[in-house]
Amino acid sequence: MSATKMTQENSSTITELVLVGFSNHPQAEIPLFFLFSLIYLVNLFGNTVIFILVVIDSCLQTPMYFFLCHLAFLNIFYTTAVVPKMLFNLLASKKVISYEFCLAQTYISLLMGAAECIILAIMALDRYVAICYPLRYLIIMNWSVCMQLAGGAWAISFFASVVPLYFTTVPICGPYIIDHIFCEVPVFLNMICDDTSLQETVMVIGASGTLLLPFLLIVLSYLHILVAVMRMHTAEGRKKAFSTCSSHLTVVTIYYGTGMFMYMRPKSLYSAEGDKLISLFYAVINPALNPLIYSLRNKEVQGAVRRTLERWKAFHRQTILP
Question: Closest Cα partner for 171 from 271, 267, 99, 265?
Fold first, then answer.
């Protein structure tokens, strides 16, 4: 029987994989459990609040917050696919993950990562239109256009990332040990015993479409924004324009910096411990930071929170009064 056939048969019978996580540092597992639990709760709370506020507050029903809703949903879904299993393994003596769930994590992380890149690019385009064409903003960024952009972002992400991976996936071979915190494409490539040049090429091409092209769109948008801001006559106008972009630029810098390093490099640069830290930033920490650095310090969001609390208090008073 050939080695390739044996590998395929062995791969088809895999039920569990060892997920190493932070077991190389057992003394840190309990503190990390509480730290990541807190970060996950902050993520769930912050992004859920943003999502609810945009839905119930008419003042936030604008294109910018419409796309922010998609980002909030994405952050919750992404981390929910990753963090609970990671937390469970921090406390478990047997640190394993089922082969099916590992594949699911790989597809979800790839889809959500690609979608976040494109949505961040659309949000940069939205800021460009708002600052460079303020009088025509609501005409250009009408709801029909917003719906098409959002639908296109999810469709492109799926067909540019998940579909190519599905058709180029080959069986992995033992030892079935994943020295990472969750399953994603670079980790899978490291477990393939055969030549992975095709998979690496497909990954780089896909990353170029879902990482580099959106990144170039962000850069071009902000170059035009910078020119428009420099032409403003008042310091107050320039300050207001910069304040609407600073949070988005912070999110872009953190996410794209870590994402490009993780997905646009050859297999030879793989480093288990370094990659764990990088993955923590874009899959665990960054989704929790997004509502804090992008929205919760925004005056419009703060106003929506106050209005919602006032409505809730008024409703509560009406229900308890005879």
Answer: 99
Q: For the residues 245-249, what does the mean pLDDT come to?
A: 79
First to last CA, the chain: 83
Is 170 buried (19+), middle (13-18) or exposed (0-12) by CB count in 10 A?
A: middle
Exposed, middle or buried by CB within 10 Å (0-12, 13-18, 19+), for 236?
Answer: exposed
For the stretch 270-280, pLDDT in tens is 666 777 888 88
- Among 148, 264, 140, 267, which residue's Cα sits nearest to residue 204? 264
Q: And the tokens for 121? A: 């690019």
What is the Cα–Cα distance from 5 to 198, expressed in whole angstroms?
A: 19
Q: Given 3-state DSSP classes, what are the helix, strand and coil percentages for the chain, each rounded to the nearest 5?
A: 80, 5, 15
CB 63 within 8 A of CB 141: yes
Burial 280-318 (b: 16+ CB within 10 A, else e): bbbbbbbbbbbbebbbbebebbeebeebeeeeeeeeeee
Query: Which amino acid belongs to residue 52?
Result: I
Rounded Cα distance between 115 and 110, Å, is 9
Q: Is 241 exposed, middle or buried (0-12, 13-18, 19+ CB in 10 A)?
A: buried
pTM: 0.84
Cα 176 to its chain centre, rounded Å, is 27
pLDDT tens-digit profile of 59-109?
888 898 899 899 999 999 999 999 999 999 999 888 899 888 988 998 998
Least Cα distance to 13 among 98, 131, 106 occurs for: 98
- CA dihedral of 234, 221, 291, 309, whole degrees rounded to 10: 50
What does each C-alpha distance from 40 to 121, 151, 165, 291 come to in angstroms?
A: 25, 27, 28, 13
